[in-house]
Each structure stands twice: as C-alpha cells, then as structure tokens.
Design brief:
By secondary structure, this protein is an alpha+beta fold. The protein has eight helices and eleven strands. The C terminus is likely disordered.
Length: about 290
C-alpha cells in the first residue's frame, strides 16, 4: 500500500512493480535513510519526521547544482503502528513534496521492528557541481545562517515549544530554494551543510586538495541563536559544529563571486595546503560519525 501523493511524471500512475521514468539527460540521484533512535526520537512530531526525510534528500540534489523533481519513498513501520501516527508521517511527506514541487514516483511500505524511512531523490544533473572543485584563492561562502537546527534540537530537549523559532528550524528545516541560475554558474565546489559547517569544509578541503580558512568574524549568527546561547562565543561554536541545517556551503572564484545574485555570506578563503583552519589555526574537528 502507498497512498497517492498526486500524479507523477511516469508513463502511468504509481502502483506497479517499477517506475518508468523519461530522463531528458544526465540525472542526479541521491538516497537518504532515517531510523528511529538515530535521526529522531519521541520528542520529534511524526509529521516532522516525514517532512525532514524528504527535505534532507532534496537538499543533496540541490548541493549538486540541480533541483529535485521526483522522489521514491520506502517506509518500514512497526506492525502495531497507529493509524494516527501513519497519517501524520504521510502528512509531513506530503507537505514537503508540495513545498519543493516534487512528484512521488513510487516506493514501498513494509513491516519493521523499528520505524525507518528511505527517500531517493532525483533531478536533472545540470553542471553536476562537486565537492572537489575548490581552487586556491576561491571565496568560501554559505547560503544562510548556520547552527539554528542544532540550537532548536537543544531547545526541544529542554522543553521548548514547537512554536519557538529555533525549534521550528530543527523540525521543519529549509533548504536552498533560491534561483539556481543565479548561483550555480558561479560556483567551483558545493555541498550541503547537513553534517555541520566545519565538517562540510573538511570534506571540501580534502576532496579539492586545498586548505579552507574560516574567518570567525564573518560567520553569520542569527540573533535568536546568540540569545539562546547566551553570547557570541557559544553561538559561534554551535554554528560551526551543529548539523542538519541543510544550507549550501561552497566556493567561488574571486572574479565570479560578485556575479552571484542570490544572498550568500562570505566565510573565508581557499588557500594552498590541506585541512580546515579557523582564523589561521588548524582545526581537527571530525563531526558526527555513525560507526565511530
């Protein structure tokens, strides 16, 4: 069983053994999986679980310089799951699909000991921007304020309301939804910030064979984050290390950076060398690892 989420771009409706798609060229494809006790717990509303799973997968396609057009969704549910819980999960998925203009091409629904959801997102590949394109002299940037989702999770654990600004940023995260044509042509490397700003920079630096230096004075800090953290120092640490923001971190050649026509924040510069630096000092922060 899989409830209809609207007509798709298939040669027919969902419900058959496989989806038949008509790609117009190269496709960017990504799959993200989320499991109970690792990616969410009893504090996270069921509709948020559905919403976050779709949004995370879509963000990966955006980080490749594309826009997701369709998704495949596989869900494992405990046998005694309530009807209320199922429809709340489904409602969150539907909300995200509507917001990001996605077609559901199909999926699977099975009985499972623990709740899990896997979302495969697909879209035209475009330039196929990668993490490995940064060059010495490029400008490092981010598309929005980091650290808000991590702060929202802390606030939720402390009893915060789903109406709080920071909690909303965790439960219903944003992704880059600007005009890609005003950003992607001017970018040399790109990835999403779901694992945290420092971890994203570490990955780009390693794969590009450069060093990335972050100027702490340039890291954009939302006033709500500073207020929650009780000052800039803790807010900066959360902005650097907190994950699940789903914004884009990238580099741009200096001569192209001024041509970017969507709001972005300068963070620093790509330098000769390797690794990630904060104000010129090496940082060895490794970020979250599932199997460590």
């Amino acid at each position: 069983m899989f409830l209809s989420l609207g007509r798709s771009g298939l040669a027919g409706d969902i419900g058959d053994d496989a989806a038949v798609i008509r790609p117009s060229g190269r496709m960017a494809v990504s799959i993200d999986s989320y499991s109970d006790g690792v990616h969410f717990n009893r504090l996270v509303p069921d509709d948020s679980i559905g919403y976050r799973t779709v949004t995370g997968a879509v963000s990966d396609i955006s980080a490749m310089g594309s826009a997701a057009e369709s998704v495949l969704i596989s869900m494992g549910l405990p046998r005694k799951v309530s009807e209320e819980k199922f429809f709340a999960l489904y409602g969150g998925i539907k909300k995200a699909c509507k917001k990001w203009s996605l077609k559901v091409e199909g999926g699977d629904l099975v009985a499972s000991r623990n709740l899990y959801i896997s979302v495969c997102a697909m879209g035209p590949a475009g330039r196929a921007l990668r993490r490995s394109g940064a060059k010495k002299g490029d400008i490092l940037f981010i598309t929005s304020y980091p650290g808000l989702s991590a702060a929202g999770l802390e606030l939720l654990k402390a009893g915060g309301s789903v109406k709080d600004f920071l909690v909303k940023k965790f439960l219903y995260p944003d992704i880059f939804s600007g005009d890609g044509k005003k950003l992607f042509p001017f970018v040399s490397s790109l990835m999403d910030s779901s694992d945290g700003l420092l971890d994203s920079c570490r990955s780009m630096a390693f794969q590009s064979g450069v060093a990335l230096n972050i100027d702490s004075a340039l890291v954009p800090l939302k006033k709500e984050l500073v207020a929650f953290c009780g000052g800039r120092e803790k807010a900066l640490r959360m902005a650097l290390e907190g994950g699940e923001d789903y914004y884009l971190v990238g580099t741009s050649p200096r001569e192209k950076f001024a041509k970017i026509k969507v709001p972005v924040f300068t963070l620093g510069t790509a330098l000769e060398g390797e690794g990630v630096f904060l104000d010129g000092n090496r940082t060895d922060y490794k970020g979250f690892r599932h199997f460590s």
